[in-house]
Design a protein that fits this description.
Length: about 150
């Protein structure tokens, strides 16, 4: 169900929900830039996409870690970024994390639960919106995801 929607409103709602999730692990969620951006999209699916990313940023973080979120517009592109100070992703795994059922470290992952579907779903939702998703990570330091969508003027 596609409609023109305010991405900043949606992200702000999720931010408020996720502060709750983060508290258990003493993780701080910081809002960096939060500019007004409209895109054409499916609210339910976009919410799922951002939740999957926020869930990972908390789940693969350390106690007292940080998660930083930003949203802004550059030319005709909406740009959402989420960075965490977590465990990071090894270089040899970075190309596989969007595959269904792929999880980096079986032992580590089993404790944390999950099925390895979150990012495959996230990527599918991004592509449904004609967007792109990119990841960069440093082992032991943290991970950043950058998502771009065509913005509505
Ligand atoms: P699910 O999302 O289905 O509950 P999951 O979190 O294991 O399970 P994905 O969200 O698809 O699955 O992520 C795939 C794997 O990529 C994870 O198991 C984890 O190893 C790694 N990963 C994803 N996000 C991060 C992150 N922010 N920091 C470190 N590793 C991550
Ligand atoms: Mg996940």
């Amino acid at each position: 169900h596609f409609e023109i929607l305010s991405l900043d409103t949606l992200v702000m709602e999720l931010y408020e929900d996720s502060e709750h999730l983060a508290k258990n692990k003493n993780i701080t969620i910081l809002l960096n830039k939060m500019n007004e951006v409209k895109i054409k999209g499916d609210k339910v699916k976009l919410r799922q996409l951002f939740l999957n990313l926020i869930d990972n940023a908390i789940k693969y973080n350390n106690e007292f870690g940080k998660v930083e979120i930003s949203l802004y517009k550059e030319n005709k592109t909406a740009i959402f970024t989420i960075s965490d100070t977590g465990i990071g992703i090894p270089k040899e795994s970075i190309n596989k994390i969007f595959e269904r059922f792929y999880r980096v470290d079986k032992a580590r992952s089993r404790e944390l639960g999950g099925s390895g579907l979150g990012l495959a779903i996230a990527k599918w939702i991004v592509e449904l919106h004609k967007g792109t998703i990119e990841v960069s990570s440093e082992l032991g330091k943290g991970t950043t995801f950058v998502i771009k969508f065509p913005a509505v003027e």
